[in-house]
Design a protein that fits this description.
Layout lengths: L4 H11 L6 E8 L13 E5 L4 E4 L11 E7 L1 E3 L3 E3 L2 E10 L4 H9 L6 E9 L8 E13 L3 E7 L24
Parallel strand pairs: 2-4
Antiparallel strand pairs: 1-2, 1-8, 3-4, 5-7, 6-7, 7-10, 8-9, 9-10
């Protein structure tokens, strides 16, 4: 019997020591998302019932190294489909009961640019850096209804990704054997 991604994830979650809760966040970036001063802003959401503050990693496009507020929202993302010769894709749905997201998306229609989605995971016992991610995706085929927005999330440069993406050096990891 072969284990699926879901089985492996469930096993990892069951075997990991967890002294805190895990929070998944979504950040939406688009040149059409601007504030009152016409400056680009990201839209940030956390999968929770209350707003939460987390630190953004260095090198991020917005607010690098700063602690920022993520608005509470409901969202879900399917496990990505895998097919030979094609990048993984998944359906992402964001609840928008208040209608704020649709207002920004309507403004974004004036720009010919991709809607970037950045997914990060944080732990409640260490909100100073993501414990997972950031994973950058592009959201396409966007549809909206009375309760939310849905689209297809894809890793754009999947074939160009360096794996592993972290470079392990003796300076950073002195326990490595040369």
């Amino acid at each position: 019997m072969t284990a699926t991604y879901t089985d492996a994830w469930a096993e990892g979650e069951a075997n990991c020591v967890s002294d805190g809760d895990q929070f998944i966040t979504v950040e939406l970036q688009h040149p059409g998302f601007v504030d009152e001063a016409d400056q680009p802003i990201p839209l940030r959401y956390v999968l929770d019932v209350m707003d939460r503050s987390f630190a953004i990693e260095g090198g991020a496009a917005f607010d690098a190294g700063e602690t920022v507020l993520f608005a509470a929202a409901g969202f879900e993302c399917e496990h990505p489909t895998m097919a030979e010769g094609r990048p993984p894709v998944a359906r992402l749905r964001l609840d928008d009961v208040t209608g704020d997201l649709v207002v920004y998306l309507d403004k974004a229609k004036a720009f010919r640019a991709d809607l970037k989605v950045v997914i990060r995971g944080y732990r409640s016992d260490y909100p100073d850096a993501p414990s997972y991610g950031p994973i950058e995706l592009v959201l396409t085929d966007i549809t909206k209804d009375s309760t939310g927005v849905e689209g297809t999330a894809t890793i754009v440069d999947f074939g160009d990704r360096k794996v592993p993406s972290r470079v392990y050096t003796l300076e950073d990891y002195p326990g490595l054997v040369p």
